[in-house]
Amino acid sequence: MLFAIVAMAFTTVGCDQQPQKNYKKVERTAKGDTPFYANITVGDASQIDSLSYCYGLMNSFGVSKQLPGVKFDWELVYEGCEDAFYCDCKNNEQIQEAGKDWNEFLYNEYYARLSEKQQAANSDPENPVDPDSIDIFKDDAERQSYSYNFGLMVGAMTAQNRIPIQIHWLKEGMKEGIKENMDLKATEAQGFMNTYFMEVLPEKNLKKSQEWFADVEKNVAGVQKSESGLLYLIENPGDENRATEADLLKINFEWSFADGTVFETTSGREPIKTNLAGLFQGWQEAVSLVGKGGKITAWIPAELAFGPQGNRFALPNDAIKIQMELLDFYLNTPEANLERSQKWLAEIEASVEGVQKTESGLLYLIEREGDANNRPTAADKVKAHYEGTTSDGTKFDSSYDRGEPSEFPLNRVIAGWTEGLQLIGKGGKIILWIPAELAYGESSPSPNISANEALKFVVELEDVIKPEAAEQVAAPATK
Predict the structure, then answer these.
(1) How far apart are CA 141 and CA 407, in angstroms?
(2) 138-184, pLDDT tens digit by residue?
(3) Tens digit of pLDDT for each residue in 396-429?
(4) Is pLDDT larger for residue 348 or for residue 30?
(5) How far apart are CA 259 and CA 150, in angstroms?
(6) Per-residue model confidence as pLDDT tens digits over 363-381
(7) Which listed residue, 225, 297, 349, 475, has the most CB atoms within 10 A of its CB?
(8) Of the given ranges (119-128, 143-152, 214-223), which has the lowest mean pLDDT?
(9) What distance in Å separates the CA atoms of residue 87 and residue 95, rounded to the nearest whole number?
(10) Mind listing the pLDDT tens digit for each residue in 179-199?
(11) Which of the residue ranges 49-58, 175-184, 195-204 would you say has the lowest mean pLDDT?
């Protein structure tokens, strides 16, 4: 269930005074009293919201059971959680970093610290240490930072998972969950949550979806209905060809729900590549209704999506709207990919002015020679900015997008890189068209790179790091 994802959420250390702030407070997107997300409301003490109360209780209670020694400053966790409700979490870099920061701490620091403190607590049998007194944080500054950032992360997950929460009662529930003697037992709160997510919510969403579909069918001009119950509106039918299970699809899309919440979109980024099997049933049907270049909007009932059980992509009985442009598709077999790649490379060789070819089959165009006296060898490390694309122009990797160059040994990259970067010096720039046998061969390292696919890289060589230089940097100073 969704609440289990955030069950590691809130506990507290007692403090009567407001602590000095040792964390960076996020800037709220939404101004005023209205949260950014439609599923989050403020609430008040006039009428209890049982879902929010039980949800908060299970979160705070869960941390003490699942993460012994994590003594958050409860007020700061709550502050971070509430701040997240007023932010566009998906596009907020600080909130994204908060999640990464916590996960790195959890997996790289927490368990080692806990084990060390537990061993120390058990080292003297005559003077045992109360396990509940273990505190894994080094100091209050670290506690405050992780408390607030963890609150940001949990608030973001709650908001984006579209759980209807009242802030007031969420906080009251969290307060209850940290008591030694709770008025409401955790088993009772868990039972309420189970009933809500397994019975109440599916029924509500089914009714909402049915009303949504009735409205679309009545009011959207030109909408059609398939035998399966899929509603669709074709903006552009595309060509006469239709994708098959053996094809790789290249798609732009926007996925949203009945309340207008956009779950995912390719707007502002690269299209996705997938085969039909990677799409759920209703989406597959929508693809079958258009050809290459086609554009379609499909309203997909829950039974053609994720049904009454839901999953991490959708709540129980969620209907889904997909707006899709089928940019391209082609046969995705090693043999077909090799033939397509060879044809592409031949076209590059014939049409790109100044392109050269090595004995291995690597095509290259040097835009800047760089320092002829400082060229890398296969034994060197290089520091480079680069962008990688496939034959259809899909970008699969870019150091430019990350905002910093990458550094790696030149003998631990694909063969086309090892050969190509030795053709320029420090400060040089080169375009590489790499045949499959000098790239990843018959393997497929990612959904965007198929087996036997040729690749294009634009590379700027920022530095050459010789082995002896690297050793000098790493070696400790000597007297």
Answers:
(1) 33
(2) 999 999 999 999 899 989 999 988 999 999 999 999 999 988 888 88
(3) 999 999 899 999 999 999 999 999 999 999 999 9
(4) 348
(5) 28
(6) 999 999 999 999 999 999 9
(7) 297
(8) 119-128
(9) 9
(10) 888 888 899 999 999 999 999
(11) 175-184
Question: Is the pLDDT assigned to residue 220 strictly greater than 90?
Answer: yes
Residues 27-55: what's their mean pLDDT? 92
Q: How many CB atoms lie within 10 A of CB 303?
A: 16
Strands 40-41 and 165-166: parallel
In this prediction, residue 300 carries a pLDDT of 97
CATH 3.10.50.40 is held by the domain 334-471 = yes
Question: Domains of the chain: which residue ranges?
Answer: 2-184, 217-331, 334-471
For domain 217-331, the CATH class is alpha beta
What's the per-residue H, E or C state across the chain?
CHHHHCCCCCCCCCCCCCCCCCCCCCCCCCCCCCCCCCCEECCCCCCCCHHHHHHHHHHHHHHHHHCCCCCCCHHHHHHHHHHHHCCCHHHCHHHHHHHHHHHHHHHHHHHHHHHHHHHHHCCCCCCCCCHHHCCCCCCHHHHHHHHHHHHHHHHHHHHHCCCCEEHHHHHHHHHHHCCCCCCCCHHHHHHHHHHHHHHHHHHHHHHHHHHHHHHHHHHCCCCEECCCCCEEEEEECCCCCCCCCCEEEEEEEEEEECCCCEEEECCCCCCEEECHHHCCHHHHHHHHCCCCCCEEEEEECHHHCCHHHCECCECCCCCEEEEEEEEEEEECCHHHHHHHHHHHHHHHHHHCCCCEECCCCCEEEEEECCECCCCCCCCCEEEEEEEEEECCCCEEEEHHHHCCCEEEEHHHCCHHHHHHHHHCCECCEEEEEECHHHCCCCCCCECCECCCCCEEEEEEEEEEECHHHHHHHHCCCCC
Length of the chain: 479
For residue 261, what are its two tokens?
């919440």
Task: Give the position of tokens 């502002």.
Answer: 268
Task: Say whether pLDDT at 3 is over 90.
Answer: no
Confirm whether 217-331 and 334-471 share one CATH topology. Answer: yes
